[in-house]
Structure formats: structure tokens, C-alpha cells
Design brief:
- The protein has three helices and five strands.
- Helix 1 crosses helix 2.
- The longest helix has 13 residues.
- It is an alpha/beta fold.
Length: 121
């Protein structure tokens, strides 16, 4: 992923696309929305029991799934973070925290820094 300087994704209109746009704007990563064979596919649907969302590996890359009732940047940002290589952290302002209390509609400077670090930006 990111071998050619672009990460492809497929996502419904709404919060997922806003998250990708924000990451691109603040990190220098390049994303391209495609209709077929994305490296990251985002869907709203059934997540694992007790979970607002999860990310799983596929033959193409990653599939990000969040429940309909949890639509909002915090869950989408968290799961896209996993697809981009981020793990859970204990930083209270991070979208990658495992604490349910985190409901911010933005990616923190901490998250953006960690994304840049993963991709050497």
C-alpha cells in the first residue's frame, strides 16, 4: 500500500470521505476514490458483537466496517487509522484510544503525527 504514492479507497458519501479528506489535507498522504479494487474499502453494516466498528484484512488491503447507529467521525477515523497502520493508544485525545468517551469529530495532532510517521512524511 502506498507504493505509488497513492492509497485507493472506496467509501459511501459522508463521514468516511470527510476523514480521508482531513487526513490528506494534514498529512501529505494522497488518496484516490475508486469504484473497484480499493486498498481500503469502507462500509456501514454489521460489526463484531459489542463493537462500534472493526477493520479486517482482505486480499486487496483492508475493509473498514462501522455500524449505522455509530455514524460519526470518531468511529470512522479510528477504523481508518487501523487500516493505515495505527494501533490503539492510551492518549486521551487520540482517535485511536480504546476509550468510548472519545467522541471528537476531528483527528488530533497526535493522530496526524503518527500517520505521518508510519509513511515517513
Amino acid at each position: 500500500m502506498y507504493d505509488d504514492g497513492v492509497i485507493t479507497y472506496k467509501a459511501p458519501k459522508g463521514q468516511y470521505r470527510k476523514v480521508f479528506n482531513r487526513i490528506e489535507k494534514h498529512t501529505g498522504l494522497n488518496f484516490k476514490r475508486v469504484r473497484r479494487n480499493p486498498e481500503i474499502e469502507c462500509v456501514y453494516g454489521k460489526s463484531r458483537k459489542g463493537s462500534a466498528g472493526h477493520t479486517e484484512m482482505t486480499d486487496q488491503g483492508f475493509k473498514v466496517i462501522t455500524k449505522h447507529r455509530y455514524k460519526g467521525w470518531h468511529v470512522e477515523a479510528h477504523e481508518i487509522g487501523h487500516a493505515l497502520g495505527l494501533a490503539h493508544v492510551e492518549h486521551p485525545n487520540s482517535a485511536m484510544t480504546i476509550e468510548w468517551e472519545y467522541k471528537s469529530n476531528y483527528l488530533s495532532a497526535w493522530d496526524l503525527h503518527n500517520i505521518r510517521s508510519v509513511y515517513d512524511l
